C-alpha cells in the first residue's frame, strides 16, 4: 500500500540498505562497494524527488553508474518504491543533504551533475540554499572530473537567470542553454515529475549545460 509506505518512510528506508544509503555518519563512500560495474563513469542527480528521471536514465544507460541524492525521507521513499519494483545495479540512492557531498564523496570522481526543478529560494536572505549558489558551485568544482558537466532544468526564470550569471561569474562556460526546451531540438530529454506537471500547464522549461573552464 502506497500510503502506508509514506507513513513508514523511515522503516522502509532502513529496511533497504542495499538500495538506499541512509547517510548519518561522516565516512566517505566508495563506489567500488556501491556498484557492480566498478569502472563505469558516475553521474549524480541532486534533489531527485520521486525519482522518475534518474530511474529511467539509469535504465537507459547501463554503462553509467548513477547516484541520486535527496534530503527528505518522505520524498526519497517514492524513489525507493521504484527501485524496489525494478532494481537496477547501476543506481544507488543516498538520503542526505547535498551540503554533505564534500564529506561523503571523493573529489574529482563525477562526470555529470543533474539539478532538476530545484527550489529557487527567491528571498535574498536564502540565496545560499540555492543549489547553484557559489557555495554549491565550489562543491561541484571539486567533485567533477575535468570537463565534467552541470545540467540544470527549471520552470523558474529567476533561478535560470541567476544560475547563468552565478556560473559565468564562477569560471564556468555554457555548452548549451535554452529558454524553451520542449520546442528546441534537444534529443533524448527525460521528463521529471515536476517537468510533466509544468509542461501540462503550458509552462516553458529552461535548461542549461555548463562546465568549469580549465584553469592553467
Ligand atoms: N527533481 C524532481 C524534484 C524537484 S523538487 C523533479 O524534477 O520532479 C526539488 C527536490 O530537491 C525536493 O525533493 C527537495 O527535497 C530536494 N532538495 C532540495 N535541496 C536539497 C539539498 N540541499 N539536498 C538534497 N536534496 C535537496
Provide a brief overview of the structure.
With 216 residues, the chain is of the alpha/beta class. The chain is built from nine helices and eight strands. The protein has one domain: Vaccinia Virus protein VP39 (Rossmann fold), CATH 3.40.50.150.
Chart the SSEs and their pairings.
Blueprint: H1 2-7, H2 9-15, E1 20-22, H3 31-34, E2 42-46, H4 52-60, E3 65-70, H5 73-85, E4 91-95, H6 101-104, E5 110-116, H7 134-143, E6 144-154, H8 157-169, E7 172-178, H9 193-200, E8 206-212
Parallel strand pairs: 1-4, 2-3, 2-5, 3-4, 5-6
Antiparallel strand pairs: 6-8, 7-8
The structure holds S-adenosyl-L-homocysteine (SAH).
Describe this protein's structure.
The chain has one domain (9-212): Rossmann fold (3-Layer(aba) Sandwich). Helix content is 34%, strand content 24%. The protein has nine helices and eight strands. It has an eight-stranded mixed beta sheet, sandwiched between helices. Helix 2 (9-15) packs across helix 5 (73-85). The chain is globular and about 40 Å long. The chain binds S-adenosyl-L-homocysteine. S-adenosyl-L-homocysteine (SAH) binds next to strand 3 and helix 9.
Amino acid at each position: 500500500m502506497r500510503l502506508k509506505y509514506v507513513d513508514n518512510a523511515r522503516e522502509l528506508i532502513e529496511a533497504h540498505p542495499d538500495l538506499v544509503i541512509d547517510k548519518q555518519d561522516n565516512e566517505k563512500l566508495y563506489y567500488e562497494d556501491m556498484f557492480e560495474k566498478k569502472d563505469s563513469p558516475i553521474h549524480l542527480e541532486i534533489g531527485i524527488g520521486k525519482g522518475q528521471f534518474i530511474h529511467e536514465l539509469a535504465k537507459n544507460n547501463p554503462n553509467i553508474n548513477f547516484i541520486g541524492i535527496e534530503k527528505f525521507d518522505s520524498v526519497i521513499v517514492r524513489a525507493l518504491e521504484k527501485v524496489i519494483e525494478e532494481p537496477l545495479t547501476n543506481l544507488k540512492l543516498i538520503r542526505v543533504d547535498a551540503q554533505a557531498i564534500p564529506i561523503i564523496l571523493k573529489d574529482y570522481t563525477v562526470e555529470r551533475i543533474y539539478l532538476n526543478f530545484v527550489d529557487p529560494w527567491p528571498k535574498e536572505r536564502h540565496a545560499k540554499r540555492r543549489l547553484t549558489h557559489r557555495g554549491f558551485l565550489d562543491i561541484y568544482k571539486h567533485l567533477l572530473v575535468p570537463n565534467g558537466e552541470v545540467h540544470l532544468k527549471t520552470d523558474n526564470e529567476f533561478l535560470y537567470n541567476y544560475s547563468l550569471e552565478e556560473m559565468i561569474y564562477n569560471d564556468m562556460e555554457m555548452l548549451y542553454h535554452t529558454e524553451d526546451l520542449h520546442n528546441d531540438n534537444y534529443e533524448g530529454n527525460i521528463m521529471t515529475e515536476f517537468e510533466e506537471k509544468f509542461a501540462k500547464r503550458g509552462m516553458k522549461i529552461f535548461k542549461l549545460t555548463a562546465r568549469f573552464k580549465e584553469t592553467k
